[in-house]
Amino acid sequence: MFYLDKNALQDKPTLKPLGGQFDWSSEFSKRYKNARYPALKQYYAQGAVSADTPICDVPLVALDFETTGLNPKTDSIVSIGLVALTTQRIRCAEAKHWIIKPDTELKTKSVVIHGITHSDVASAPSFNSVLDELLLHLQGKIVVAHHKDIETRFLNSALQHYIGEEIVFPCIDTMALEARFSRTLKRTFMRSLLGKKTPSIRLTDCRARYHLPYYRQHNALTDALACAELLQAQVSTYYPDETSPVSAIWC
Fold this sequence. Notes:
Helices cover 41% and strands 14% of the residues. The protein is α/β, with parallel strands linked by helices. Helix 2 packs parallel to helix 5, helix 7 (174-181) packs parallel to helix 11 (220-238) and helix 10 packs parallel to helix 11. Pfam families: RNase_T.
């Protein structure tokens, strides 16, 4: 994943849900009726996890993209990482990692960040060829991402390009959770007034606060795993009995 400031993304999401107040089940039902692409229609047919489902019972999938740049309108996905999990278990055997031939130019700046080169993508599959399997892995799950705008906007851009449709899904954003719950981060405003450096909410820095190990950054599969572990640590810290409804942390 790229690390962004708050103004980095140039596109707007097509749907802005209202956290626990948003009726995802009704939204999926409506989208199912209107969807044309078979795999997307099947994705919506599986329905959304009920808002009152205890966090411990929710099937999750951590999702991470590496991209050719920061703008979903002019850049595209170059790799995808998926890790299935619950709050108690990470299902490594079900993990997936794809290198994708991007639809836009592979820029030198992005190659330096994620290390995926022109030779790596020369014989790689197109996004379209992995789309059905990707949607299958997302069915019936809540997506977990660190700074979800990357995944929601780039995935929608890719679907619009290939099938002329968009996708919506409930998501748990580990970066937003950290900003919401961390006592250190809640003191950010006062620290800024005092001219002190504010705490980082980058994935590696968030993990460090929970004493999770350092992983090399900017590999989609590794970052998805890192995000999955971070969510488990956050839930264990702030929802130790894990019986709270998932609507308390999704968006």
